Each structure stands twice: as structure tokens, then as C-alpha cells.
Automatic annotation (TrEMBL):
<dbReference type="GO" id="GO:0005524">
    <property type="term" value="F:ATP binding"/>
</dbReference>
<comment type="pathway">
    <text>Carbohydrate acid metabolism.</text>
</comment>
<dbReference type="Pfam" id="PF13671">
    <property type="entry name" value="AAA_33"/>
</dbReference>
<dbReference type="InterPro" id="IPR006001">
    <property type="entry name" value="Therm_gnt_kin"/>
</dbReference>
<keyword id="KW-0067">ATP-binding</keyword>
<dbReference type="GO" id="GO:0046316">
    <property type="term" value="F:gluconokinase activity"/>
</dbReference>
<keyword id="KW-0547">Nucleotide-binding</keyword>
<dbReference type="GO" id="GO:0019521">
    <property type="term" value="P:D-gluconate metabolic process"/>
</dbReference>
<keyword id="KW-0311">Gluconate utilization</keyword>
<dbReference type="GO" id="GO:0005737">
    <property type="term" value="C:cytoplasm"/>
</dbReference>
<comment type="similarity">
    <text>Belongs to the gluconokinase GntK/GntV family.</text>
</comment>
<protein>
    <recommendedName>
        <fullName>Gluconokinase</fullName>
        <ecNumber>2.7.1.12</ecNumber>
    </recommendedName>
</protein>
<dbReference type="InterPro" id="IPR027417">
    <property type="entry name" value="P-loop_NTPase"/>
</dbReference>
<keyword id="KW-0418">Kinase</keyword>
<keyword id="KW-0808">Transferase</keyword>
Amino acid sequence: MTTHVVVMGVSGSGKSTVAEGVAERLGWTFAEADEFHPQSNIDKMARGIPLDDRDRAPWLRDLGGWMAEHAAAEDDTVITCSALKRSYRDVLRRDVAALAGGHRVVFVHVHGPFEVIAGRMEGRRGHFMPESLLQSQFDTLEDLEPDEHGFVLDVRHSPQELVTEAVERILP
Ligand SMILES: Nc1ncnc2c1ncn2[C@@H]1O[C@H](COP(=O)(O)OP(=O)(O)OP(=O)(O)O)[C@@H](O)[C@H]1O
Ligand SMILES: O=C(O)[C@H](O)[C@@H](O)[C@H](O)[C@H](O)CO
């Protein structure tokens, strides 16, 4: 049985900060979903155009496949991935769920007020994602539903608090 953590949320919410901390604390394999985006998706966002379902579909399938490969190899993982919609999370879960052995995908939603996240994006330099896309990220976001395995963290907590809380709630 392996666990696959998806740290989700809008751009600038702190996914990388939390996911890297959790992966380090647990010694689990880490990946950034942004590194799985085709260059065309990165270019589109950099031009200030939000991705649509078609842009995200192959990317989500690749990430789900990556987690399932690791599950099959008995390797626990932590990834960052916006995973904004329920249907996206269904794709991310699908390949791991199809394996025998009771492997788990756990979503950790880093969530908080628009103004806090906008302020952090403003202070960040050299990232392809423009602040102008934050509203579309919030518009697209669908909260975790009661039957989804996961939990919400408050972006206003310190990175250290967030990592500790995440680790406590992830471990079975
Ligand atoms: N809990 C926190 N408290 C204060 N600042 C934070 C916190 N978490 C992250 N930050 C800062 O906010 C900015 C965004 O964080 P981070 O890059 O981890 O977000 P992200 O969700 O991975 O972003 P993206 O998806 O756009 O790459 C960074 O400058 C980071 O240092
Ligand atoms: O689904 C999406 O729209 C994307 O994955 C974005 O969320 C960004 O890639 C990421 O957050 C970097 O800012």
C-alpha cells in the first residue's frame, strides 16, 4: 500500500512550499506538475490566457500515470498540481485506483483569501504565471467534495505549521 499526496490549489497558494516540505519530512518522491506541462501550456499562461479543459487533459493523464507507476513500484509520492476541478481530480486518481493493493491518493488543498495569495504572487519574481490569471484560477476552483479523500489547509499559517499539519493528517 502506497500513498500519493497531491498538494492542490490556485497559483501562488503555496503548493510547492508545502509539497517540498512534506516530501522532505517523509522522504517521499517529489514532482512539480508544472514540469509536466507541455511548453504550449506554459506559453499560453505566460501570455495571460487561462488553460481550458482540453489543454489540461493530457497533462492530468500523464500525472495520474506517473503516480500509478510509482504505486506499482511501491514508492510513495508527493506532487504539486492545481487540480482545480473535481473532474481533474478524478483523472488524477483513476490509474492509482485501478491498481490492486489499496493504494491511496490524498488531496491537500492549500486555500485562502484572494488578497493574501495575490500579494504573494506580486512579491514573486521570475515565475511564468501572471497575477492577472489568479481570478480565473479562483473561478475554476471546485472545493473538495465530501467523498474525496483529502483536507484543506489555511494559506495564512506559516510554511512550517502547514507542513506539520499536512504530515499529521496524511499518515494513515
Ligand atoms: N505559508 C506561507 N506563508 C508565507 N509565504 C508563503 C507561504 N507559502 C508560500 N509562500 C510564498 O508565496 C509564494 C508562492 O508560493 P509557492 O511558489 O509555494 O506557490 P505555488 O502554489 O506552488 O505557486 P505556483 O503554482 O504558481 O507555482 C512564494 O513566494 C512563497 O515563498
Ligand atoms: O491548471 C492550471 O491552470 C495550472 O496548472 C496553473 O495552476 C499553474 O500551472 C500553476 O499554478 C503555476 O502558477
